[in-house]
Every structure is written in structure tokens, then in C-alpha cells.
Amino acid sequence: MKMMGKLMLVVVAMLASSSVFAANFDGTYKFNSRMKDGNADMSGWTGEMKIANNTISRTYHSPDGKSEKFYIGDLTQKGDLYTVKYTKAYKPEYVGNEHTNKMTVQGNALTIEATDGKFKEVWTKK
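RESULT FIELD:
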């Protein structure tokens, strides 16, 4: 009986660890900043990101309100990295592209960063 209890504990721990991904990132976020190749990118833009059910949706609006960029994709975890495969985007040629990044949460800030350090976005949870 003790062995069965230990086995159940292991199963519960494994299931809990697989759902940590959703618990850590699910929510709605406000765009703060973006860096590309070490330079500020999209300064003055506003945006919103939603993560739910392993789907990530990001929408950005230009400072003058005339331009919009959007990306929607499936989010999967691979070890300590996260891959987004775009299913919809403001440019059709982006659909099907995959990007693997580090995603970290510290307080209310969620950071998405390329493994080579050439891309970094910071979002604040609403």
C-alpha cells in the first residue's frame, strides 16, 4: 500500500510540473519594451499579449495609430525553452515560422528573450 501511495505521489508531481507552464504565463500583458540586435525597437508602440491554453497572441499599435502588427501561435515547452509556431500574422509569410525563446517571469514582468540575446521583449501582467 505504501508503494502505491508513493507511485501516486510521483504521478501527481509529474502532472503538476507539466501544468506549471500554463500557471506561470497564462494571462494578459501590456507591452513595455523591445530590443533587437542591441538597439531599442518599436519605441512608442503599445501592445497587448494574451497567453492561454498554450496559445500566445501579441498585437502592437504604432504611436500614430495607423499601423498594427499581430502574431498568433501555438506555444510549446522544450526543456527550459519555449517555441512559438505562428498560425496567423500580419504578414502571411510569417505563418508557419517557429521561434524558440527563453521566457521568464519575475514579479509582474514577463520577458521573452532569444537564446542568442539578439531579441528581447518585456511585458507587464495586467
